[in-house]
Design the sequence.
């Protein structure tokens, strides 16, 4: 009798494990994030567009793994890309950044204007691609 109970518990445990393993890819796919990052450098007259997908990390962004790791660490809080300490020259050569799409299934529409490329690189971190990437 004990063998039947143990076999039944073992089978139930195996079935639960298989069900949770099958659900894992669906959960990971549901939390996927897709962003379009547009960087306009008015002084240079350029407009660059990048795609960034996180979980899994890939896209036309030059450093998708670093950018996605930075976003995950901040909980997807793009407001953190708006200001920060930066030691940059006081030159005025505006860089405008717009990020749209979804982060963990939540809509995103973020805009920020940096004084110059140095501020964009330092404050925007790995999320905002530099002109030379």
Sequence:
């Amino acid at each position: 009798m004990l063998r039947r109970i143990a076999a039944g518990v073992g089978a139930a445990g195996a079935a639960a494990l298989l069900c949770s393993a099958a659900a894992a890819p669906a959960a990971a796919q549901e939390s996927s994030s897709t962003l379009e990052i547009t960087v306009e450098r008015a002084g240079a007259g350029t407009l660059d567009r990048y795609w960034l997908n996180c979980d899994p990390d890939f896209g036309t962004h030059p450093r998708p793994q670093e950018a996605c790791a930075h976003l995950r660490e901040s909980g997807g809080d793009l407001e953190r890309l708006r200001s920060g300490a930066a030691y940059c020259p006081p030159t005025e050569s505006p860089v405008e950044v717009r990020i749209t799409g979804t982060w963990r299934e939540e809509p995103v529409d973020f805009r920020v204007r940096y004084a110059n490329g140095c501020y964009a690189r330092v404050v925007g971190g790995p999320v905002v691609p530099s002109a030379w990437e």
In short: Strands lie at 33-41, 46-54, 58-59, 95-103, 106-114. The CA atoms of residues 2 and 8 lie 10 Å apart. Confidence is low (pLDDT under 50) at residues 1-30.
